[in-house]
Here is the input.
Amino acid sequence: MPFINVKVAGPPLDHDQISCIQGRMTALTASVLRKQVAQTTVLVEQVSVAGWSVGAEPVDVAAKVDAIVSAGTNTPEEKARFIAEVNNVLRAVLGSDLPNATHVIIHDVPEESWGYGGLAQVHGARNTNPQHRPIAPRAS
Here is the structure.
């Protein structure tokens, strides 16, 4: 199921901030992307702000989110809403100094190319998630 990696640069996050990010990312993944809470993994990593710039200028705070999900399981509208809501969470937790160039990237990975618990998603997801329903290809 989903793996959400949140990289944050800036002042050290306290326990409450990390818990808030983890909880809200998990909740958004369930409510917006229709994924199981129990199978959603969130990793919050703090990285040095010295290595981060926007427009070749240093920043005081920055963040990036990579969300890995099974390809074809979400609509463009769901993805757009997730990106917007994640940005709102980051601004609420990290503050208004967060640059507009805060990236949220949804990686659609083929189910046979990743997994958890020793099973590829192609074998595990269909059997454990009643909401798992691939999106039908759009007609051209």
